[in-house]
Write a structure and sequence with these properties.
- By secondary structure, this protein is an all-alpha fold.
- The protein has one domain.
- Helix content is 72%, strand content 0%.
- It has 5 helices and no strands.
- It has helices spanning 4-10, 12-28, 37-40, 46-64, 68-74.
- It is elongated, with a radius of gyration of 14 Å.
- The termini are far apart.
């Protein structure tokens, strides 16, 4: 695997879900050790963040009707 982002791009929904985590990490994360966050991750467009949230909202009932905790914690 050359770059993790190449795999993420193949699966749009997976990429969208991970993009939200990367955006929060990029903007609010704290380095415990190693390189600075902005050296490790590239910025992600805000549109991907919004698309991620909308994908979770749109799929909330169908995908995880039995797991409401996931959506409460992520929205």
């Amino acid at each position: 695997m050359k770059y993790p982002f190449e795999q993420l791009k193949r699966n749009t929904l997976s990429f969208l879900r991970k993009s939200r985590i990367i955006i929060v990490t990029y903007n609010r994360g704290v380095v415990l050790f190693g390189k600075e966050i902005k050296e490790v991750f590239k910025p992600i467009k805000n549109q991907y963040y919004m698309d991620s949230i909308m994908a979770d909202i749109n799929g909330a009932f169908e995908e995880n009707a039995g797991n409401p905790v996931y959506y409460v914690l992520n929205l």
